[in-house]
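[Discussion] Sanity-checking designs against the backbone

I'm trying to build intuition for which residues belong where. Below is a structure token string of 444 positions. I'd appreciate it if someone posts a full sequence so I can compare it with mine line by line.
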């Protein structure tokens, strides 16, 4: 993995799209995340776009302007004439970097008048578009890479032995459900399922312990062939970029069903993604060393150990989850922050998770989604789900209205946010990942 810093990271570069220069914008010229959108109030197909300030640049439509002269940029631009990012993802790193550099130059304030005029014709206000899922996700796998989350959750079930013996050796994960991945803003129906309270007979009905999980997702770019592993030193070349993931979870269903094969219906009813995929290039200035394992912890096995990954495989990404209840909404209150954590605290790096996933020869395909697992930190304020925060409902949280929450109520809205910040560089953001709870189906 090479960390490449170039003119696209220059903190002084400004865009002629004025809103991109606002200091609090998630989408300055240095970010340029890709997504898929559809114009509201117009019968148009979904299109690939790039976010700049509060606008979207329609990359499919931009094709007609002949702004991409060299072959490699042209190839990437052509891959954007699609209703998903899969084709662009499949091209791998070099084309994506070339497209990023070209987009940066035509959106920068010193762009030629001709480029500016051409681009202006395909800029749309973000308020005029609906964001869709960024990729057609073939497979979705979810990891469990925060040792703080694993320990906090483990303690609730096994107070004396919170971490199972495999945790520090294997990036633990399970195979999630791709069909129920939804774009931000999609309402989430409270699921029904089978539960069992203490020693009572099992029952079927709406979950009473609906939870969110604050996670980071990363998309696969270049594929590996079935039967061929991805060496850890090559893993970064198979990553496209990241988004926010809310892995909605029904804890009572989970508690009853999870042994011996792991999560199933407690997770598969919905998983929400933020729509903009921030590329590995945009994240380059914010890479940090892998999590420092406490003394006495085992070193990763050699297939998961790479010097460069140890030096730069972490990511300093601030994350936040907040909640807005119906009562707070009625009183015009802002969402209340329930947890703030950082992705640099993950026990395993993205490359380690990807390499482990492919280590048995499992083929990963462009657009496949891997998620990190709940991102929690050492501190109590850094807990990424209600199960941890309320210790399974024992210590409810109090909202600004005085309402209490052990788990989510109907009409609650959960909002995830993430951003990278570092002195000497422009702050970039991931946008938001939102979902509101609908009451359970009365006739499940
Ligand atoms: Ca999860």
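Best answer:
Here's mine. Compare freely.
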């Amino acid at each position: 993995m090479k960390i490449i810093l170039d003119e696209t990271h220059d903190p002084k570069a400004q865009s002629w799209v004025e809103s991109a220069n606002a200091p609090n914008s998630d989408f300055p010229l240095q970010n340029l995340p890709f997504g898929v959108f559809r114009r509201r109030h117009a019968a148009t197909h979904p299109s690939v776009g790039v976010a700049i300030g509060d606008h979207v640049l329609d990359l499919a439509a931009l094709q007609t302007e002949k702004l991409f002269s060299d072959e490699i940029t042209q190839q990437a631009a052509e891959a954007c004439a699609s209703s998903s990012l899969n084709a662009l993802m499949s091209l791998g790193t070099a084309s994506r970097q070339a497209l990023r550099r070209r987009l940066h130059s035509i959106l920068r304030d010193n762009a030629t008048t001709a480029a500016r005029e051409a681009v202006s014709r395909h800029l749309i206000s973000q308020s005029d578009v609906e964001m869709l899922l960024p990729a057609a996700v073939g497979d979705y796998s979810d990891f469990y890479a925060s040792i703080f989350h694993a320990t906090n959750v483990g303690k609730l079930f096994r107070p004396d032995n919170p971490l199972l013996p495999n945790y520090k050796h294997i990036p633990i994960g399970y195979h999630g459900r791709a069909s129920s991945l939804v774009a931000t803003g999609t309402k989430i129906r409270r699921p029904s399922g089978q539960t069992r309270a203490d020693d009572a007979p099992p029952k079927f009905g709406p979950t009473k312990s609906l939870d969110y999980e604050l996670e980071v997702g990363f998309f696969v770019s270049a594929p590996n062939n079935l039967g061929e592993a991805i060496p850890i030193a090559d893993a970064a070349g198979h990553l496209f970029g990241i988004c926010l993931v809310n892995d909605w979870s029904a804890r009572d269903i989970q508690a009853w069903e999870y042994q011996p094969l792991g999560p199933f219906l407690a997770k598969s009813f919905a998983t929400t993604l933020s729509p903009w995929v921030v590329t590995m290039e945009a994240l380059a200035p914010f890479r940090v060393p892998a999590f420092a394992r406490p003394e006495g912890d085992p070193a990763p096995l050699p297939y998961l150990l790479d010097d460069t990954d140890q030096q730069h495989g972490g990511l300093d990404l601030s994350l936040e989850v907040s909640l807005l209840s119906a009562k707070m909404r009625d009183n015009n209150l802002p969402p209340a922050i329930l947890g703030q954590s950082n992705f640099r605290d993950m026990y395993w790096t993205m490359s380690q998770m990807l390499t482990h996933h492919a280590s048995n020869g499992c083929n990963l395909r462009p657009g496949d989604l891997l998620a990190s697992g709940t991102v929690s930190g050492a501190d109590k304020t850094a807990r990424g789900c209600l199960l941890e925060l309320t210790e399974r409902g024992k210590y409810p949280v109090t909202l600004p209205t005085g309402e209490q929450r052990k788990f989510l109520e109907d009409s609650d809205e959960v909002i995830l946010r993430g951003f990278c910040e570092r002195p000497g560089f422009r702050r970039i953001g991931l946008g938001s990942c939102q979902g509101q709870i609908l009451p359970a189906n009365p006739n499940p």
